[in-house]
């Protein structure tokens, strides 16, 4: 491949209209942090759950789920909620390992709960409907959050010294804190509801979400000229990193297309008559091992060109495959 072809491929990738959704969702997450939405989510969840054994950890998971609904990045979710929840967990005597593990696990909900950058890139690469992926991801994301809460509840009973109990918050204060999270619900409904309802495209929905969170941050006093420039800078750096990974995946896909390796693997799997569910289990095990070596985005970009034709040949649902891949990414991170 010549330098001209490399440059042409890079320009085509970086100027893709579909991929412009990525920086919009990342920017939305930064604005949400500046607008105090992460603090409001945690405070509301802590008011209802904090008085229980392990309740602050449960509140952190709930806040991660809520923040994931307005931030498409698991790393951003984990980093943001760590700054908010970790001091409170230390204050009430939570063990350091338990606290950090809870926040790391809760942060992975940003991969699954829409809007998700990973699901967006999956949809673009496989030419699937982003709105359907977002809708299908919502219930598994909620179930994953509930599962984390159940695990926390069991853990603190097995290891009572790992978590403390905070004082009970009056019901009046609980409802007051709950009303403070309305901007999160408003942004989520506007973005996901607007996309699924056909009011605007996914890219337009991401832009609406970024604008909405930006306005909320501005009126809450968190968005200044300095913080605005910083948000743009951080978003640009994160986007450049993701785009470079996608560019590398494009070269990799071209190589696979020329060699016809994925199609030959798919034909071999079908020809051998393997049980489709057994093939899916083997793919899941492979993801589990691969996740020990690389991050979720790189893992999915590396394997989609190979596994997608196999799954296609076995007549599995593409939307279900996307959710499974997102959940596998969560599992290997945890």
Features:
single chain, 334 residues, 2 domains
Architecture overview:
The chain has 334 residues and is mostly helical. It folds into 2 domains: 18-242, no CATH class; 246-333, no CATH class. The chain has helices at 3-14, 21-34, 37-49, 55-68, 74-91, 96-107, 109-112, 117-126, 130-158, 171-179, 182-196, 202-219, 225-259, 261-272, 276-290, 296-313, 318-333. Helix 14 (261-272) crosses helix 16 (296-313) and helix 16 packs antiparallel against helix 17. The two termini are 39 Å apart.
Secondary-structure map with pairings?
Blueprint: H1 3-14, H2 21-34, H3 37-49, H4 55-68, H5 74-91, H6 96-107, H7 109-112, H8 117-126, H9 130-158, H10 171-179, H11 182-196, H12 202-219, H13 225-259, H14 261-272, H15 276-290, H16 296-313, H17 318-333
Strand content: under 5%
Terminal CA distance reads: 39 Å
- Strand-and-helix sequence, N→C? HHHHHHHHHHHHHHHHH
Largest sheet: none
Alpha-beta classification: mainly alpha
Distinct helical segment count: 17
What oligomerization state is this entry in? single chain
Helix content range = over 70%
Strand tally: 0
Shape: globular
Could you report the average pLDDT, rounded to the nearest whole number? 84
**How many structural domains does the protein architecture include?**
2
């Amino acid at each position: 491949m010549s330098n001209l072809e490399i440059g042409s491929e890079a320009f085509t990738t970086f100027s893709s209209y579909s991929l412009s959704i990525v920086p919009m969702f990342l920017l939305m997450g930064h604005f949400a942090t500046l607008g105090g939405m992460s603090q409001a989510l945690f405070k509301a969840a802590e008011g209802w759950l904090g008085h229980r054994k392990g309740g602050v950890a449960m509140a952190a998971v709930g806040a991660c789920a809520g923040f994931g609904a307005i931030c498409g990045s698991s790393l951003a979710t984990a980093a943001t909620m760590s700054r908010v929840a970790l001091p409170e967990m230390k204050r009430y005597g939570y063990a350091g390992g338990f606290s950090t593990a809870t926040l790391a696990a809760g942060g992975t909900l940003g991969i699954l709960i829409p809007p998700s950058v990973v699901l967006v890139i999956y949809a673009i690469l496989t030419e699937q409907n982003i709105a359907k992926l977002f809708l299908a991801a919502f219930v598994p994301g909620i179930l994953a959050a509930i599962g984390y809460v159940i695990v926390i509840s069991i853990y603190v009973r097995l290891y009572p010294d790992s978590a403390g109990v905070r004082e009970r918050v009056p019901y009046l204060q609980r409802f007051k804190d709950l009303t403070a999270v309305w901007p999160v619900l408003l942004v989520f409904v506007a973005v996901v509801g607007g996309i699924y309802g056909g009011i605007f495209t996914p890219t337009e929905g991401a832009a609406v979400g970024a604008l909405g969170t930006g306005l909320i941050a501005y009126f809450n006093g968190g968005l200044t000229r300095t913080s605005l420039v910083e948000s743009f800078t951080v978003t640009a750096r994160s986007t450049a990193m993701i785009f470079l990974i996608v560019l590398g995946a494009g070269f990799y896909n071209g190589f696979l297309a020329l060699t016809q390796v994925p199609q030959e693997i798919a034909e071999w799997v079908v020809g051998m008559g393997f049980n489709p569910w057994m093939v899916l289990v083997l793919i899941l095990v492979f993801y589990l091992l691969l996740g020990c070596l690389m991050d979720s985005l790189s893992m999915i970009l590396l394997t989609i060109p190979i596994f997608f034709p196999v799954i296609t040949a076995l007549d599995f649902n593409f939307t279900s495959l996307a959710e499974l891949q997102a959940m596998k990414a969560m599992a290997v991170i945890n």
